[in-house]
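Continuing the series of single-chain predictions for the mutant panel. This is the parent chain; the variants come on the following pages.
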Amino acid sequence: MVARSALVAIKVLHTLIWVVLSAVIFYLLYAVITDRIDRWFWWGLGLVGLEIATLVLFRMSCPLTVVARRYSDSQRANFDIYLPEWLARHNKTIYSVIMGVVLVGLVWRLVG
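Parent structure:
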């Protein structure tokens, strides 16, 4: 029962962090499209940079996933987060593409 409660707590926390980071990433995309490169953009970019550094440090796995593995042997992509499995499976790819667009847009805005 303790393992189940711990896994639910991890899933809730992981999902909340995902929602916040998703909002930040979509704000960055909005800011680049509308040419609103302001201090909030740079804060958001720094936050995403910290997330990327964390993923690299944990070999492209979220630290919460590492902790959740202690409480589950599931091989499903969404065992540690409340997302549809297809989204959990392709999350890094989707957000990498969006961040690529953000970075190209940022360069275009700063140079152009």
